[in-house]
Amino acid sequence: MKLIYEGKAKKIYDFEPGLVVMEFKDSLTAFNAQKKGSFQGKGALNLKFSNQIFSLLSQKNIPHHFVRSLNESQIVVKKLKMLPVEVVVRNFVAGSLAARLGIPEGQKVKNPIVEFYLKNDALSDPLLTENQILALDILSLEQLNKCTEMALKINQVLVSYFLSLGVKLIDFKVELGMDESGQYYLADEISPDSCRLWDQTTHAKLDKDVFRRDLGSVEQAYLEIAKRMGL
Ligand code: ADP
Ligand code: UDP
Predict the structure, then answer these.
(1) Mean pLDDT of all residues in the chain?
(2) Which of 88, 90, 91, 104: disulfide with 113, CB 3.0–4.6 Å?
(3) Is the CB of 28 under 6 A from ligand 1?
């Protein structure tokens, strides 16, 4: 298969018409790849998380790009035209929001917050206002509304799923893309790389923050989530 893109955590290969293969790497990066790590089996673990979540979203009629698994580190997905933004949903204050506004991490927000970041590594994915998105034609109004609507639907499903596992979904990032007929799909991955997951009672972090902040074994944190998800 011809490699068409290599990113920080995944590789994309050309496949059959309308399809690409997405390969999950064992690497782990933070702070726009200034910090690098890895553990064996991390890619396979993220693929399993992501597949389980896509299957949950299928049951709720949320369209996503997953087509089928090829092996333990590669899946076949619909080839999409990706929207140039990362969409973040927050149920509790954490990370960049806590830092920017000086609010302690863990504070519940009244309603889920939806934020947009420009996908641009050279600029470290800057935060965008909705006004900027429309005035600069980064997304159309329809795309902006679709992203918000899908991100909030996904949030509803994931919040209750993780609560059933004794886990608070603090925040997460999604990416969306469009196929040739203009249909929108959830793309990329949903895994502890892209979500903040805290144990409901101890507030132990079970996500990439363990790696970002040197809080112990990131592998153990991912394995704990995998165990709770029955993977
Ligand atoms: P990054 O590009 O930020 O380093 P990754 O290593 O995760 O991130 O690379 C995966 C890339 O594949 C991302 O740029 C993502 O937007 C893109 N992508 C995800 N799903 C699809 C899809 N269905 N079709 C085409 N590109 C996709
Ligand atoms: N996130 C992500 N990729 C990014 C930036 C953020 O998956 O490039 C996720 C992150 O894991 C968290 C949420 O989006 O679950 C919100 O991240 P935040 O804005 O707080 O950024 P951080 O300071 O963690 O990079």
Answers:
(1) 98
(2) 90
(3) no
